[in-house]
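User: Some background: our group keeps a shared notebook of sequences we're curious about, and every so often someone picks one and asks for a predicted structure to add to the entry. Today it's my turn. The entry only has the sequence so far, pasted here. Could you supply the structure so I can complete it?
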Amino acid sequence: MHWILLGTTRFLGADVPTGSLINVLELESPNLLALSITMPFHAAELRRQVKSLRDHIGGRLPIAVGGLAGVGVAPAPAGVL
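Assistant: Of course. Here's the predicted structure to add to the notebook entry:
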């Protein structure tokens, strides 16, 4: 599968606190949030962050998870990337 990104991509950096990420999402209203995980021992924290984001923003924003350790971190509900 190939992705073509149209528009602006913004890199926020590593270890962005969930509250700061929520603030950015509210200010910028992106079409997609992509998170990357490279170390498997961060998987539990990634799950917590995704849950917090979904609880706050609901299902209105697709969240893509990838990276070297991203495979199999959390099953996505039907229709979610």
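Suggested note for the entry: The chain has two helices and two strands. The radius of gyration is 12 Å.
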